[in-house]
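Hello K.,

You asked for the raw outputs rather than the summary table, so here they are, unedited. I folded two proteins back to back in the same session to keep the settings identical. This is the first:
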Amino acid sequence: MSQTMPSIGEMLAATVPMVRTLNLEIVEATAESAVLRLPDQPDFHNHVGGPHAGAMFTLAESASGAIVLAAFGDQLARAVPLAVRSEIAFKKLAMGPVTATARLGRPVADVIAELDAGERPEFPVNIEITREDGAVTGEMSITWTLRPQS
C-alpha cells in the first residue's frame, strides 16, 4: 500500500481549525501563489451583511499560511513557521464571497540560505482580498519567520 503526501489544502485544514470553521476553500496553493475563498455565509456576516472583518483577516492569514507551507514545507523538520506581525487595510465594502491571493515578498532561496546560515529568517507575505467583481476590498501584509527547531 502506498502512502501519498497530503495536499497543502489538506494540511492547512487538518492543522488550522479556523480553516474548517469558516469553510475556507483552497483554490490554489503553490510556492508562487496561494488563493483561498471565503464563501458567503450569513453566520459570518457583519452589521452591513458582508463578511465580518475577523473572517476576512482569517481568510488572508490562512492564504499566507498556505503559501508558507507550499514554499517551505520541506523545511518543517528543522524549522517552525510562525507569523510575527501583520497589518490589514480595508479598502472597499466586501459583499458576497471574497477571495484572498497571497504572494511571497522574498525569494524562497534567500530565506532558506538564511536558515542554512543558522539565522532565523523573516519574510513578508502580501495578500490581496477581492470581491467576485474583482474589486480589491482589502490588503494585508504578514511577516513570517522560520524558527529553527531546537
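The second followed immediately with the same parameters:
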Amino acid sequence: MTGESEKERLLIDSEQKFNALLDIIESVPSRKRSTSIETQDRDKNFRDVVMHLYEWHAMLERWYREGMDGDIPFTPAPGYKWRTLKQLNMNIWENYQEVTLNQALKKLMLSHERVMSIIKSHTNEELVTKKYYKWTKTSNLYSYFAANTSDHYMWAIKKCEPIAKSIKQGT
C-alpha cells in the first residue's frame, strides 16, 4: 500500500482494529457477553474495556474542542496528571459499573464515529506536523488520535481476547 498518507493509514488501522474488537465481542454468544472473568486486572468483562475506550474518546474530544477553541486543555483530565493515570482509569472503571454492555457498545460506536470524523476533517499536514496547533505543545494531532484509536484498540483487543476465551471455555 504505497503512497498512503499517515492520515489514511491511521483511518484504515483504526477501522480495522475497531472492527476486530467488535468481532471478538460478537464471537461470544450474546447471552454470555456480560460475563465477568476471574482476573487480577481492573477490566473483568467486555463492558469494562468498552467504557474505558469510550471515556478516553470523550477526553480526547474535550482536549480537541478546548484546544481548537484556543485554550490549552488540561490533560489527561481535571484533577489528574499523567503520573496518576492508574487512579484516573480506576475512577473511570468505577463510574461505569452500572452501564450495560449494550449501552456501552452504543456509546463507543458513536464516539468512534465522532473521532474518526475529526481525523477526516484534517489534512495529513495538520495531523503530522509537530506544534501545528499550539495546544498539542511539542507533539502533533496524529499522536493524540493514534493513542486513542488504533493503539488503544490494539490494547482493547489484547484485553478482550482472554475474556472471550475464558467465557467460551466456561471458566
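The chain has one domain: 42-169.

Happy to rerun anything if the numbers look odd on your end.

Regards,
P.
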